[in-house]
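Example record

The entry below shows one chain as it appears in the dataset: sequence first, then structure tokens.
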Amino acid sequence: MYILRKLLFPFAVLYGLITYVRNKLFDWGFISSYSIPIKSITVGNLAVGGTGKTPHVAYIAAIISKTKKTTILSRGYGRKTKGYFQVNATSTASTVGDEPLQYYTQLAPEVSIVVCESRTEGVKKIMSEIQPDIVLLDDAFQHRKVKAGFNILLMDYNKPFYKDYMLPSGDLREFTLGKKRADRLIVTKCPENLTNEAKKNICLQSGFLDAQVYFSKIEYGNILNFDSQAVNSYGIVLLVTGIANPLPLYHFLQETNKVELVTFPDHHAFSVTDIQKIHTKFDVLEDSSAIILTTEKDFMRLKSIVTKSELERYPWCYIPIRILLDREEEFVQEIINYVDTI
């Protein structure tokens, strides 16, 4: 893989130049951006996938919705539909995408959730049909055709953008110059007991002032079955994921249990055949207390595929997560201050 990425480096340079020119055309006004006329926050990243956007968007939406009418706008990756659609109680992952469905499950009715490929069209319809106080744009940092009032950039601690390369040689969607559009940086998936010295070094290398950078880590919740009941004891874990980076969860579970990992691509649309293969693998574990565990995001797709009779025979479970943010009070106050300014 390393050699292949080296060979692809010339294409990475070309791709980077194309995105650079495109961004400059927006910066110079040759390509117009729609400035969102209401309060708006974008959460995104410079790299493809795996930085933890979903829990961070949910975290910010929960803060704002306490005092303001809030809408989340997402593209709805992995859905089989197109166009503008407001998520409701009958929505499924195939109609709206797994992340929007997860937002709806966690945040409705306090927060409304909308999917639309065109962020401009989505924002305009949200303003006319929902009329929120603020719109929160999920993964729209590179969508320059809309201009939000406040931009939050996420960076994975384990793969910082200043050590990455452009696609296809690396995972960057654009040159790191794009970071200048961000008002704040959140370094995600940080380890326990990250020292102040290490934090200062990250701020220095990322090019942000210390006050502009926050650090978050993942906290895993109690394992739940597909009826959302707590599972208190279990043996071998057959971990099934369709996310960009399952390794943090895999390593977490390995601390206390034997874990077998089955991976699928990010936003994978699970099929009946997939479920059969998973069950076949589970059958050979020879552990009566074993469970099949997936992520909360994957659960949004799997719950409509795994049948009731299969749930009676196989112990399907999922594990929710939330984020813990350093200087949380300061971050919350910054968000509130932005939302409340005229």
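Notes for this example: The first helix runs from residue 2 to 7. The mean pLDDT is 94.
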